[in-house]
Write a structure and sequence with these properties.
The chain is mostly helical. The protein is built from 15 helices and four strands. It has helices at 2-21, 26-30, 42-46, 49-59, 63-66, 85-102, 167-177, 193-202, 206-216, 222-238, 250-259, 264-272, 276-289, 302-312, 319-342, and strands at 118-121, 133-136, 153-156, 161-164. Strands 1-4-3-2 form a four-stranded antiparallel β-sheet, with no helix packed on it. A hairpin with a 4-residue loop joins strand 3 (153-156) and strand 4. Helix 4 crosses helix 11 (250-259), helix 4 (49-59) packs antiparallel against helix 13 (276-289) and helix 12 (264-272) packs parallel to helix 15 (319-342). The N and C termini lie far apart (87 Å).
Length: 343
C-alpha cells in the first residue's frame, strides 16, 4: 500500500508538470532563451590538457577562498585540536584533497539541441485523446544510461502525434522519478531574467548564484549557459573578477572571455594585481582557442609580450581598458624606480 501511495503521489506531480509544461506558452512561462555561441563544441577545447593547465594555473591557489562556506544564520563553534606533526600532515593532506575537489571546474559545453523529433503521426486516435500523455522509463537500473538525457521519454500529443519530449518537460519529469538532491522541479524565480538582473545589481552574490545554477541545471542546458554567461558579463562590467579567483568558476569565466575574444578587461585586472604571467597565459589561451600561434615567453620579457598584444592583437572595442591598466602599471614601475634610486 505504501508503494502504491508513493506511485500515486508521483502520478499527481507528473500530471501537474505535464499540464503546465506541455502547453504552447512554455517558452513564455519559463522566460528562457536559446543560447548558441559557438559552431564547434567548446568542450573539446575545454578538456584539452594544455588549456586545462592554463585555466588551473590562472585560477589561483588561495585555500581560504577555495574552501569557502556560505553565510549561515546559526554560528558554528570552531574546533581546536592538538595534533602531532604526523596528524597535522595527515590533516593538511586531507584539506588539499578537499580543495582539489572544490576547484573542479564545471564543464563548458555547447547548448544541447532541441528534442522535437516526430516519431509517429496517428490522427485517427486524436478524437479520443483528452490530454497529452508522457511515457518515460522509470526503472532503477541507472547502469543502462551513462549520460543524462539517454532515458527515453516521449509525448503523445492531443492531435495524435508522438514526439520526443522537449527538454523542459524531460527535466521536470526526470526530477520527479530520479530526483537530484537540491534541484527543484520548476526553475526558481531567481534564474528568470528580471529577477536575475535584480539579484546581480543589488547583491552581486555571484558565487551563490553560480553554485545554485550548478545544482539546478545540467551544464549543457540553455538556462545554465544563459545564467552563467550573464554573470560573467556582469562581473566584467563591474570589474569584480577577484570574487571568482581561487574558485572553480574562474577557469570557465576566463575560457568564456577567451572564446568570445574579450580578454582585455580580465587582462587589465591581472595587470592591476601584478599577475603579469597570468596575463600572458590568458593571451596564449585565447590563441589556442582561436587556432593562432602561441607566444613563447623564453628569452622575452613579459611586459614586451603584453605590449605586443596591446599594439597588434587587442580587441579594439575593449582596448581602452587595457590601455588604462598599462598606464597604471607604468606609473607603479616609475614610482618603484624612484624609491630604489632614493634608497
Amino acid at each position: 500500500m505504501a508503494a502504491l501511495r508513493k506511485n500515486m503521489q508521483c502520478f499527481r506531480k507528473l500530471s501537474k508538470v505535464c499540464s503546465n509544461c506541455c502547453d504552447t506558452g512554455l517558452a513564455r512561462y519559463f522566460q528562457t532563451s536559446r543560447v548558441v555561441l559557438f559552431d564547434e563544441d567548446p568542450l573539446t577545447y575545454f578538456n584539452d590538457k594544455k588549456v586545462n593547465y592554463i585555466l588551473r594555473k590562472i585560477t589561483g591557489d588561495d585555500t581560504k577562498k577555495a574552501i569557502y562556506k556560505h553565510k549561515i544564520e546559526k554560528a558554528v563553534t570552531p574546533k581546536y585540536l592538538v595534533l602531532t606533526d604526523k596528524e597535522l600532515q595527515k590533516t593538511m593532506t586531507k584539506a588539499e584533497g578537499i580543495k582539489k575537489r572544490r576547484l573542479q571546474m564545471p564543464p563548458f559545453m555547447k547548448c544541447r539541441e532541441d528534442r522535437d523529433k516526430l516519431l509517429e503521426d496517428d490522427p485517427d486516435i486524436a478524437s479520443i485523446l483528452e490530454s497529452k500523455y508522457v511515457f518515460f522509463d522509470i526503472t532503477d537500473d541507472n547502469s543502462r544510461y551513462k549520460r543524462y538525457g539517454e532515458r527515453p521519454m516521449v509525448i503523445r500529443h492531443r492531435n495524435g502525434k508522438l514526439k520526443m519530449a522537449d527538454w523542459h518537460t524531460y527535466d521536470r519529469v526526470s526530477q520527479i522519478y530520479n530526483p537530484f538532491p537540491g534541484r527543484e522541479i520548476y526553475m526558481p524565480k531567481m534564474f528568470k531574467e528580471d529577477h536575475l538582473e535584480e539579484l546581480l545589481d543589488t547583491y552581486q552574490n555571484y558565487l551563490y548564484i553560480l553554485e545554485r545554477a550548478c545544482v539546478q541545471f545540467e551544464p549543457d542546458s540553455s538556462d545554465f549557459i544563459r545564467v552563467t554567461h550573464r554573470i560573467y558579463e556582469h562581473i566584467a562590467e563591474h570589474g569584480c573578477f577577484d570574487v571568482l579567483r581561487s574558485t572553480r568558476f574562474f577557469g570557465p569565466m576566463a575560457f568564456y572571455f577567451a572564446m568570445i575574444n574579450k580578454i582585455e578587461p580580465l587582462m587589465a585586472d591581472m595587470i592591476d594585481r601584478n599577475l603579469l604571467s597570468d596575463a600572458v597565459d590568458l593571451i596564449n589561451l585565447k590563441k589556442i582557442l582561436h587556432k593562432e600561434s602561441e607566444m613563447h615567453t623564453q628569452g622575452r620579457e613579459i611586459l614586451m609580450i603584453i605590449q605586443d598584444f596591446y599594439n597588434n592583437e587587442a580587441n579594439k572595442k575593449h582596448i581602452h581598458v587595457l590601455e588604462e591598466a598599462l598606464g597604471r602599471l607604468e606609473k607603479r614601475l616609475e614610482e618603484r624606480l624612484q624609491e630604489e634610486q632614493s634608497n
